[in-house]
Amino acid sequence: MEPIYATSHLLSVVFVLTSFLSCFGARQENPIVKQLHHTHLYDPGAYQSHLSTSYRSDIVHNPRFPSFLDYKTRAPITRTSKASAPANSHKLVTVDDFGAKADGTDDSEAFKKAWNATCSSRERAVLVVPKNKTYHLKPVNFSGPCKSHLKVLIYGTIKASVKISDYENDRRHWLVVEKVKNLEVRGGGIINGNGRIWWVNSCKTNKTLPCKRAPTALTFLECKNLVVANLRFLNAQKMHLTFQGCVNVRALDLFVKAPRNSPNTDGIHVTGTKKIKISKCIIRTGDDCISIVSGSTRIEATDIICGPGHGISIGSLGANNSEAKVSHVEVNRATLSGTTNGLRIKTWQGGSGYAKKIRFQNVVMHNVTNPIIIDQYYCDQVDPCPEQPSAVKISQVMYRNIKGTSESEVAVKFNCSKRNPCRQILLQDIDLRREEINGSAKASCENVKLANMGHVSPMCA
Ligand SMILES: *[C@@H]1O[C@H](CO)[C@@H](O)[C@H](O)[C@H]1NC(C)=O
Ligand SMILES: *[C@@H]1O[C@H](CO)[C@@H](O)[C@H](O)[C@H]1NC(C)=O
Ligand SMILES: *[C@@H]1O[C@H](CO)[C@@H](O)[C@H](O)[C@H]1NC(C)=O
Ligand SMILES: *[C@@H]1O[C@H](CO)[C@@H](O)[C@H](O)[C@H]1NC(C)=O
Ligand SMILES: *[C@@H]1O[C@H](CO)[C@@H](O)[C@H](O)[C@H]1NC(C)=O
Ligand SMILES: *[C@@H]1O[C@H](CO)[C@@H](O)[C@H](O)[C@H]1NC(C)=O
Ligand SMILES: *[C@@H]1O[C@H](CO)[C@@H](O)[C@H](O)[C@H]1NC(C)=O
Ligand SMILES: *[C@@H]1O[C@H](CO)[C@@H](O)[C@H](O)[C@H]1NC(C)=O
């Protein structure tokens, strides 16, 4: 850590970060801070609306979306009932109508046909995957644009093919939903990646094997106005659920589970996505519970239960000298248990761009190895990553009300870049202790400009 930095700079950090806090509490009227709202770095209005009720208001008040959300999940619909359907009802399609057998044979063609029928429907359409059945699928792309708003109700189980040759055209994806607008997917069913075959063939599991790609179980690609709710994801081949290039997403009531030693099985991965609210999710896997990477902004994760796994991560960013931009991230109310990291920001040497306006608050840690960590020397490759002049710049990161236990002695670790120190880092009401001995933990702080508020323990020297 730089031993001394200008007091005025420290004050401005405190002021800006105070305004940062208070725009949520809507309580302060200090004119200096108020002015800072408008003159510094930060557009609290935009952030605030996104953080409070924007998902309700933006979606519900969008005239083209409202009844979509109001649609009540009724008892499972298991067959098409065109004849008896009232005139203004939704068109109902089930995969069984298109020949899905759920008998262990491949149901991919039936799912594709059912999707086509749903997606081309001019009236609102509902696609049903019936309850108490297990359907087997090879890689399938469900593509839009579709003619109306869609709802997919997954009540049953969808299981992935375990034949690696089925994935030879594209080893990165199992199920892809692409270019669809106004889609809601829910139902309480299970999406099972059957990933064991991929894990044992991973170079992370067996170092003698070459590193090859493995598929993400479910990818939403370039979708807009999307709700993914009440689903269970099990044993993905690699990541479980990815949002890539999407706009306006709500992901809620999701349960994700894979063994703690399954490689790269991130729970929810967010990339290039604008405005996503992830809430009420339980994620227990072998990699990050939530990972947020470049091009993502206005990310909210609330009421998250995480662990085992690698914690909640922003990054990695800036690999291979790439430019990365991540901003306006809010993690609120999370519990992390037995994870290798808690709240992590990781960047490679040599990148550019930024990670800024990030807030972590109301987080409880149980036996987390690195509860709070910023690592600007991240290097996940065989070759070393030498220090480089450029870096993804990290600024305006707040940690507030973070409590619990650290598995390691160093509970707070800021390893920031020498030439691009982390700036405007605020720690407020931090209480992290050692798990094993219930003793005090340490903070390790390199190249970071920070401020403390309230009770902060451990504190940077
Ligand atoms: C679904 O629709 C697409 C585009 O119209 C077409 O290429 C494809 O053959 C259809 N698939 C099935 C299984 O009907
Ligand atoms: C599913 O199975 C459960 C338990 O066997 C049964 O109670 C329920 O009625 C079944 N539901 C459907 C839609 O078949
Ligand atoms: C499915 O979508 C992915 C992602 O865009 C693409 O890489 C893949 O080639 C597509 N597969 C097919 C069969 O269209
Ligand atoms: C690792 O892979 C090699 C080469 O396929 C194989 O011979 C070996 O049994 C594997 N080791 C384990 C522990 O699976
Ligand atoms: C960086 O680029 C090299 C060469 O193109 C590639 O092999 C490697 O996987 C890349 N690393 C990352 C982290 O993307
Ligand atoms: C804490 O985590 C370590 C390593 O993961 C483990 O060995 C230890 O048993 C855990 N302690 C508790 C109390 O769970
Ligand atoms: C920061 O990271 C570098 C590179 O991994 C490492 O050599 C150094 O020891 C780290 N510093 C601290 C304080 O952990
Ligand atoms: C750990 O220490 C704190 C502060 O001394 C105390 O309040 C707490 O009860 C202790 N917890 C355990 C499990 O001993």
Automatic annotation (TrEMBL):
<dbReference type="InterPro" id="IPR000743">
    <property type="entry name" value="Glyco_hydro_28"/>
</dbReference>
<dbReference type="GO" id="GO:0009901">
    <property type="term" value="P:anther dehiscence"/>
</dbReference>
<dbReference type="GO" id="GO:0010047">
    <property type="term" value="P:fruit dehiscence"/>
</dbReference>
<keyword id="KW-0961">Cell wall biogenesis/degradation</keyword>
<keyword id="KW-0378">Hydrolase</keyword>
<keyword id="KW-0732">Signal</keyword>
<dbReference type="InterPro" id="IPR012334">
    <property type="entry name" value="Pectin_lyas_fold"/>
</dbReference>
<keyword id="KW-0326">Glycosidase</keyword>
<dbReference type="Pfam" id="PF00295">
    <property type="entry name" value="Glyco_hydro_28"/>
</dbReference>
<dbReference type="GO" id="GO:0005975">
    <property type="term" value="P:carbohydrate metabolic process"/>
</dbReference>
<dbReference type="InterPro" id="IPR011050">
    <property type="entry name" value="Pectin_lyase_fold/virulence"/>
</dbReference>
<protein>
    <recommendedName>
        <fullName>endo-polygalacturonase</fullName>
        <ecNumber>3.2.1.15</ecNumber>
    </recommendedName>
</protein>
<feature type="active site">
    <location>
        <position position="310"/>
    </location>
</feature>
<comment type="similarity">
    <text>Belongs to the glycosyl hydrolase 28 family.</text>
</comment>
<keyword id="KW-0964">Secreted</keyword>
<keyword id="KW-0134">Cell wall</keyword>
<dbReference type="GO" id="GO:0009830">
    <property type="term" value="P:cell wall modification involved in abscission"/>
</dbReference>
<dbReference type="GO" id="GO:0004650">
    <property type="term" value="F:polygalacturonase activity"/>
</dbReference>
<feature type="signal peptide">
    <location>
        <begin position="1"/>
        <end position="25"/>
    </location>
</feature>
